[in-house]
Amino acid sequence: MSPGSAPPQPPLDVVQQWLQAVVTHPAGVAAGVESPAAQGLVRLDRGALEQLVRRSRRLTAEERLGIYANAYYARLLECLRDGFPVLAGVLGAEAFDSFAFDYLQRYPSRSYTLDRLAESFPRFLEETRPDRDPGGAPPSWPDFLIDLATLELAIAGVFDGPGAEGEPLLAPADLLGLRAGGGFAATRLVPVPCLRLLRFRYPVNAFYTVARQALAAAEPRLGDFPDPAPEHVALGRTDFVVRRYSLTPFEAAVLAALAGGKVVGEAIAGAAAASELSDDELAAQLDTAFRRWTAAGFFRAAVQR
Question: 0.70 exceeded by the pTM?
Fold first, then answer.
């Protein structure tokens, strides 16, 4: 290379990888240029950025790249706000964005699809929850926020995941036929792939319903902070609409056993043994529950042993 001539330019695919490493760096463009990931692709001396990226009449090369870096994180924050609208409403925009930006540093986007961007957000909230105060009890509000984030993430997962639209499902009439035939206890009910069972420390399902209504009405308040109370919820999807179903602890135990492959008799017996309800109360819950579950399309088939 003759004196004063420009250094050879790297191949386009290398420049693209370098650009990604620079604009996605959490500490900004300058730190991104000097990061091992970027330097391993294109080695630039300090202050030599304009050998690769031209400046404009008004902006330096670093400032031009900063536009892309800011847009990158703005888009990811927007996606997280869209994925957790109720949580964002509870925290407020500034606090939520602060949580979300810190999350992106610990769990940066690694997938080609934004569908996986939020998959570790409840885990992040658990990992970064405030410590117990010296000599005092741990704060309870993180549990509520984690439960709420878990519910919103699960709703998005059921919406985007596999379903049973267009498939024949087990109907209430099919269930009556099985019970009349006498082999119901030995029957295994095959759940639809979109069935999700969740247990929370707070009644976030009830709170979520009220908060969504408040968001739709553009109300500034989303509802009062609820008191702790265990809540069991089933998620299903029919006609591409995610629906939420509250469950009693007994119903949740039976449904979890059925989803785990137990036959009906074993599922009921195991849940009943752990319940303090009377036989009449259990029978009444079961009758109502199975009618509701089949009407909701929880099962795609019944297999008798």
Answer: yes
